[in-house]
Amino acid sequence: MKWGYQIPKLNYLINARIETAHQKKMFIPFLKNNRCAILIEGYYEWKNKEPYCFHPFKKGKEHIYLAGFYTKSQDVVILTRQAKGELFKVHHRMPVVLKESILDLWLNSQNKYLDILNK
Questions:
Q1: CATH (one of 3.90.1170.30, 3.10.20.600, 3.40.50.150, 3.90.1680.10) for 2-117
Q2: For every residue of the chain, which 3-state class applies, written as one string?
Q3: Phi, psi values for residue 31, rounded to 5°
Q4: What is the model's pLDDT at position 109?
Q5: What is the mean pLDDT of the chain?
Q6: Which pTM was predicted?
Q7: Which listed residue, 16, 73, 84, 94, has the most CB atoms within 10 A of its CB?
Q8: Which is nearest to 37 in space by CA: 118, 115, 101, 119?
Q9: Structural domain boundaries of the chain?
Q10: Looking at residue 112, what is its pLDDT?
Q11: Residue pLDDT, tens place only, 34-47
Q12: Count of other CB atoms within 10 angstroms of residue 52
């Protein structure tokens, strides 16, 4: 799979806003049937052309899962939300991090995704 989705006749999309993705016709089938969890060790946000590395882990954890979806051509898009806490000082958006306790619920396409992520 590759990160990013080339929308026909439009832009290349790498992230989608969790607050509005369910309102966009092109995303609805992916959010309903093609959810995924992206396993990461950390990620970067940029401010004034300066990279900031984030390792948002709890003790004993070496990785986290991000909420995303994939297309039929196996393009992956990460869902984002408004940044919280210290991260907001660097960037106004952040990836949607999945708690391990809801990972199975997220991947089960029969559950409404906004209900799951608000747990």
A1: 3.90.1680.10
A2: CEECEECCCCCEECEEECCCHHHCCCCHHHHHHCEEEEEECCEEEEECCEEEEECCCCCCCCCEEEEEEECCCCEEEEEEEECCHHHHHCCCEEECEECHHHHHHHHCCCCCHHHHHCC
A3: -70, -30
A4: 64
A5: 83
A6: 0.83
A7: 16
A8: 101
A9: 2-117
A10: 67
A11: 999 999 988 888 88
A12: 13
Give the chain's length: 119
Work out the angle at residue 54's Cα, subtended by the Cα atoms of residues 50 and 42, and round it to the nearest 5 degrees.
115
Gap between the Cα atoms of 5 and 71, Å rounded: 8
Q: Judge whether 40 and 6 are in contact, CB under 8 Å.
A: no
pLDDT in tens, 9-60: 677 778 899 888 888 888 888 888 899 999 998 888 888 889 888 876 666 6
Cα–Cα distance measured from residue 11 to residue 44, given in angstroms and rounded to the nearest whole number: 22
